[in-house]
Amino acid sequence: MLEIKNLKKNFSDKKVLKGISLKVEKGEIIGIIGPSGCGKSTFLRCINLLEKPTSGHIIFEGDDLIDNDNLEVIRRKIGMVFQQFNLFENMTVLDNIILAPVLLKVMTKEEATVEAKRLLKEIDLLDKASFYPNELSGGQKQRVAIIRTLIMKPEIILFDEPTSALDPEMIGEVTQLMRKIANDGMTMLIVSHEMNFIKNFCNRVIFMAEGVIHADGSSSDIFDNPKDEHLINFLSKIKNV
After folding, report:
1. Helix 138-150 and helix 93-103, axial crossing angle in degrees, nearest 10
2. For residues 38 and 54, what is the distance between their CA atoms, to the nearest angstrom?
3. Range 229-238, long-range pairs (CB < 8 A, 24+ positions)
4. Mean pLDDT across the chain, nearest whole number?
5. Residue 239's pLDDT is what?
């Protein structure tokens, strides 16, 4: 479904990604862990070209995205959920959700409104459709952000620290929605520092350090039977995993 080949990203003379290669199969839920500053978020942003890679290839459904200048189509098929929600504060919840499908002519405004309300009802937020983001809790904002991505019917969703901006009692709201999406067969790549969530939620885990992948395996391989020295050192600093 998605294959990344020798992906590199430099910011001026700083080499952030030093050659990432990865194959993603349909329906996989892949957690990406590693120390701060190792390139995890940059890697996600490169996949849907929010950051343009310095070199390498991103093959999605047989096409190299590096050579594709139709960013709207790419970002429709590869959705992204951000740490800080990225909702427009001057727009209602409903208008935030229908903006992209209407602008990109994926749906009419009427069709998008019906679908948005259906999705909001599924997560018990239909009564918030006319609210503005500043009237919502953090957990509600993130669930709206996820619905905004889902309405585009993506084939992959990238999650960049989806729970790190939330209070502990709100994390469950978001992870419950993510579990529902996973159960529906969505392919997901998740960067998170919540190790227990990654361990229990993802069927595959990648450990990054210093701009490269040091370990790639099942959740059990990574957390219960680590072999890479960098990974062992990383896990030794984390409690209760």
Report:
1. 20
2. 17
3. 231/207, 234/33, 234/34, 234/35, 234/207, 234/209, 238/195
4. 93
5. 63
Prediction pTM value: 0.92
Contacts (Cβ under 8 Å, ≥6 apart) of 20? 4, 6, 7, 8, 39, 43, 56, 208, 211, 212, 213
Is residue 159 helix, strand or coil?
strand
Residue 170, number of CB atoms within 10 A of its CB: 18
- Tell me the C-alpha distance between 25 and 82, whole Å: 23
Q: What letter represents residue 96's amino acid?
A: N
Residue 211: helix, strand or coil by DSSP? coil
For tokens 């790419």, what's the residue?
74
Q: Which residues pair with residue 63 across a beta bridge?
A: 60
pLDDT in tens, 189-227: 999 999 999 999 999 999 999 999 999 999 999 999 999
On whether the CB atoms of residues 209 and 234 are closer than 8 A, the answer is yes
Instruction: Tell me how long the chain is.
Output: 241
Reference 81, options 193, 189, 195; nearest CA is 189
Nearest to 49 by CA among 158, 182, 163, 192: 158
pLDDT, tens digit (0-9, with 9 covering 90-100), for 98-157: 999 999 899 999 999 999 999 999 999 999 999 999 999 999 999 999 999 999 999 999
Q: Would you say 207 and 222 are in contact if contact means Cβ atoms under 8 Å apart? A: yes
**DSSP secondary structure letters along 135-146:** GS-HHHHHHHHH
Concatenated DSSP letters of 175-186: HHHHHHHHHTT-
